[in-house]
């Protein structure tokens, strides 16, 4: 039996507009991470992805499946999602992107905050 996914698997800020590199939609990279250690049921994925709605999770899983990154496997009473070999090939680039983002996190936060402040100062006609 595999270990359950941890509720705190992802930082509270993720997904955020600070994520500089995305595969698919804003949830796809995290879904791929959740499937890294083996197949998972929909309800298992919702634990660490607590900010996602069921509709968005379904949409993201379908998109990943259509792109060939995830397979949907029907079991006797449930459905499990798993990474395909193509999806598994994304793990190394995701690791590199995460390491880069961690190294440049402060710069990303500062740039995002500056852009937000600038958009609030835009004069109205």
From TrEMBL:
<feature type="domain" description="HTH hxlR-type">
    <location>
        <begin position="14"/>
        <end position="109"/>
    </location>
</feature>
<dbReference type="InterPro" id="IPR036388">
    <property type="entry name" value="WH-like_DNA-bd_sf"/>
</dbReference>
<protein>
    <submittedName>
        <fullName>Transcriptional regulator</fullName>
    </submittedName>
</protein>
<dbReference type="Pfam" id="PF01638">
    <property type="entry name" value="HxlR"/>
</dbReference>
<keyword id="KW-0804">Transcription</keyword>
<keyword id="KW-0238">DNA-binding</keyword>
<dbReference type="InterPro" id="IPR002577">
    <property type="entry name" value="HTH_HxlR"/>
</dbReference>
<dbReference type="InterPro" id="IPR011991">
    <property type="entry name" value="ArsR-like_HTH"/>
</dbReference>
<keyword id="KW-0805">Transcription regulation</keyword>
<dbReference type="InterPro" id="IPR036390">
    <property type="entry name" value="WH_DNA-bd_sf"/>
</dbReference>
<dbReference type="GO" id="GO:0003677">
    <property type="term" value="F:DNA binding"/>
</dbReference>
